[in-house]
Write a structure and sequence with these properties.
With 192 residues, the protein is of the alpha+beta class. The protein is built from 3 helices and 9 strands.
Length: 192
């Protein structure tokens, strides 16, 4: 029996060693590849991102559009403030439009010199809106250079149903409309 065990032991030991050796080699072959990206993959991703960025920048609107929108919003806000001030104080607020200079000025008096300017909210400076370079100011009805909000917030001194100030730039027209009967100020866009 001892001989058999010894013989068995001799044959079993090398099998275990072989099995362990095979198993160890199999483990090396079954290992997952190293995590990460190859240099080619990284370069390809950078090229694709670059192409997308070029296309996106080309489609972005120019800075002029944003300035145009800001000028329209500023003018509408100033008109709304002037109307609210006229109602709150039960006194007329004069709106003066200089299309050549591209400015709209707000006064508490109808005198041509604007001896009593309407002050900007929270400021000591006169409320005045100037359109940015590249934007043209026009007014309808044509020839209107001034109108006033009365103590009830309505527009006086305009024969039409509305006073419309147009800000024109690059084929697009931003419109600020003040309705005569109510003094409501609205904004919108018009394209030719």
């Amino acid at each position: 029996m001892n001989g058999r065990l010894a013989h068995l032991h001799v044959h079993v030991a090398p099998a275990c060693v072989r099995a362990r050796g095979r198993h160890a080699g199999a483990r090396r072959a079954d290992r997952a590849p190293a995590a990460g990206f190859t240099l080619v993959e990284l370069i390809l991703v950078l090229v694709v991102v670059g192409v997308i960025a070029v296309v996106a920048v080309a489609r972005m609107p120019s800075q002029t559009i944003f300035q145009h929108q800001a000028a329209m919003d500023e003018l509408a806000s100033a008109l709304r403030y002037a109307q609210k001030k006229a109602v709150a104080e039960r006194a007329a607020v004069d709106v003066r439009i200089d299309t050549a200079a591209g400015t709209v000025t707000f006064c508490r008096d109808p005198a041509p010199a604007c001896a009593q300017p309407l002050l900007a909210p929270g400021d000591t400076a006169a409320l005045r809106v100037a359109v940015p370079a590249g934007v043209t100011l026009s007014v309808a009805p044509a020839g209107t250079t001034r109108f006033a909000f009365d103590g009830l917030g309505r527009i006086a001194d305009v024969a039409a149903q509305q006073a419309r100030l147009d800000l024109v730039s690059g084929g697009a027209t931003a419109q600020v409309v003040a309705w005569v009967e109510t003094g409501l100020v609205e904004t919108g866009w018009s394209t030719p």
